[in-house]
Amino acid sequence: MDNKKRNILISKEQIDERIVQLGAEISVDYNNKKLYVLSLLRGSFIFTADLVRHITIPTKIGFMTTSSYGDKLESKGSVNIINDIPDNVSGFDVLIVDDIADTGLTMDFIISHVISLGASSVKSCVLLDKIDRRKVDITPDYCCFEIPDLFVVGYGLNYGDYYRNVPYVFNWED
């Protein structure tokens, strides 16, 4: 793929600007609440790190590893928990952070899981929303960017475990 030209869909500057706005919005919405940010690894680790630096209220942060893609370009349709939430989230207002809302199956599964653990409230936050691919009726509560049905990488999103470190979101031109 590296011999193909990269088509930058969302620049580093656009991402940075939107994350500052989103951090401020979340800070207002969760003021006087017990915020627990749950980052879904591995795709959202960069987004989560940048986002929480712009949340100005006390925040507890945890990580959970799930798998729905394996080594494929598309979701396999089921969600597996690889590493569960390390903390007791009962009584917390949980904000699940993921890199991309695609089919919605992962977010739907994790929301149900977190509710079953006794969270006071559960909302979702994604870097990218690919609405055209949705298989379940779910809309992220917070979203940085809506994108068309393209395979994208960069800024945490990977292809073959590479490209997560690229500071922008792109796809390859044919």
In a nutshell, what does this entry contain?
The protein is α/β, with parallel strands linked by helices.
Strand content: 25-35%
CATH fold name: Rossmann fold
Cα end-to-end separation: 10 Å
> What is the second-level CATH architecture?
3-Layer(aba) Sandwich
Count the domains: 1
Overall residue-averaged pLDDT value: 93
Neighbour order of strands in the largest sheet: 4-3-2-5-6-7
Unreliable sequence segments: none
**Computed structural class:** alpha/beta
- Count of runs of 4 or more consecutive helical residues: 3
| DSSP summary, beta strand count | 8
Radius of gyration: 16 Å
Q: Can you write the helix and strand succession as a string?
A: EHEHEEEHEEE
CATH class: Alpha Beta
User: Major sheet, described briefly?
Assistant: 6 strands, mixed
What is the approximate shape? globular
Helix content: 10-25%
